[in-house]
From TrEMBL:
Keyword Nuclease: no
Taxonomy of the source species: Bacteria, Bacillati, Cyanobacteriota, Cyanophyceae, Oscillatoriophycideae
Protein name (Swiss-Prot/TrEMBL): Pentapeptide repeat-containing protein
Listed Pfam families: Pentapeptide
Signal peptide: 1-31
């Protein structure tokens, strides 16, 4: 499990950046203690309430969070690894610099959500709502960009980014 987390948090972003030719802003490196990172592994929770919670750098792995409510949650640097988030609500949440790998966001609500510089690969967004969301600088699989463009509209109220432009919709 530790190797998987290390790979997901350190090596995967570096490898993806190199493959995609992305330029990440450099920031001072900070050591994180195990107590500073909240891990939610192998949980099965329906209708979980995370409204307005501070979940920066939280790690969710192999979890079932169908219909979870993350409205207004501060989730910068969050990690979702193999998580089911069907019908989850991320309205007004901030997932800047977040990472999702092999996660299911089908029918999730991303209205007014900030997902700038997030890495969202091998994840599904079938039927997700992308109204007023900001995906600027986010890495997504082409098929999922096409899926999100089906509902993409508006301008993010926080960043003022046009949703369709931030996704690269045609």
């Amino acid at each position: 499990m530790l190797i998987d987390r290390l790979f997901a948090r350190v090596f995967l972003p570096i490898l993806l950046a190199a493959l995609l030719g992305l330029n990440f802003k450099t920031a001072p490196v900070q050591a994180a203690s195990a107590a500073a990172i909240r891990a939610y592994d192998n949980i099965d929770v329906t209708s979980k309430d995370f409204v307005g919670k501070r979940l920066q750098a939280a790690e969710f792995s192999d979890a079932h969070l169908d219909r979870a409510d993350f409205t207004r949650a501060q989730m910068q640097g969050v990690v979702f690894d193999n998580v089911t988030l069907t019908d989850a609500d991320f309205k007004d949440a901030d997932l800047t610099d977040g990472m999702a790998y092999r996660s299911d966001f089908s029918k999730a609500n991303f209205e007014n959500t900030v997902l700038t510089d997030a890495i969202l690969l091998k994840s599904t967004f079938t039927g997700a709502i992308a109204k007023n969301a900001d995906f600027s600088g986010a890495a997504l699989d082409k098929e999922q960009i096409i899926e999100l463009c089906k509902t993409a509209a508006g301008v993010n109220p926080v960043t003022k980014a046009d949703t369709r432009e931030s996704l690269g919709c045609r």
